[in-house]
Amino acid sequence: MxxxxxxxxxxxxxxxxxxxxxKVKQEIHIPMEIPVVVVKYFPxxxxxxxxxATGDVSGSLTxxxxxxxxxxxxxxxTLEEASRFRAYKNQEAKPSLTYKVVKEYEFxxxxxxxxxxxxxxxxxxxxxxxxxxxxxxxxxxxxxKEIWVWGYHGxxxxxxESNMASPTGDxxxxxxxxxxxxxxxxxxxxxxxxxxRSLSExxxxxxxxIEAVLNHVDGRxxxxxxxxxELLFWGKYVGSDKSHKIINPGCGWAHYPPNGERDYDxxxxxxxxxxIEDWKPDGTGxxxxxxxxxxxxSSIDWFVFWMQSLPGHNNGLKHKGKELHNWWIFIxxxxxxxxxxxxxxx
Length: 346
Prior knowledge:
Oligomer: single chain
Distance between the termini: 33 Å
Structural class: alpha/beta
Shape: globular
Largest sheet: 5 strands, mixed
């Protein structure tokens, strides 16, 4: 029976004009699991944080550790929820991503740093952090795709909100220095959080990474800025151009909701007509009158709303006659997407 089933599958693929290899290439299984290693740096002064080391964060170690553990848990849950395509209209929407913390490290010392040209404060030494936890084993042998580093800023260290290491090149919200992380066979992304801040800022780190990756896949890195408004993601989905401002109230980006007039304008009460809830590449989606009430004037609610509006699983959207991919594959399985030369459209 198994032999005949295989023959039938091959015949169907031949009749539909697809090879077996091409058919497999098109399949994306969800949810895509993202194994995470969490690394925490708590410079200690007895039972408290050493504010001389952190620059501006003080308090008891117990309090800070409790805060970090709580945000880490909430972050994983929020990112998974945010990957459900238009879940605000479809309660049956499935998440494209799921996060699993597989290991946590705690170091009661200051972040390792080094002097880097162009930076006024010592730069966090990500090579040292990743090598210390034997990152190669976690990434290449155990499938870890993200490393979440908890530390501080306070003007005493410099950091990158996201930083990618990949055999195919760094695509992240950083200066994309190919030497500031160890590069292994598989791609991984390191996120650096500040425990002096809140859940909102950790999610924003991921928002900017999503923007960096989608812009890269869509070709913005090699496109004349004068033509950014013509691109599928930045021009049509976001509704922006080289100014980074909203020139067409589409779906916006992290700092700018559809009615945004400046960075971080999440509480703007001005109404605009936006198609974010029914976005279509050709601009025929239904526009709805909305302002910050739609996301409760909350940065976190805005971030989730925006991410749930990204073309996800079973999005049914087309661009110039071609179906859109589930854009979450560029976060959930970047190496597979690069290997198969995926673009935003199939």
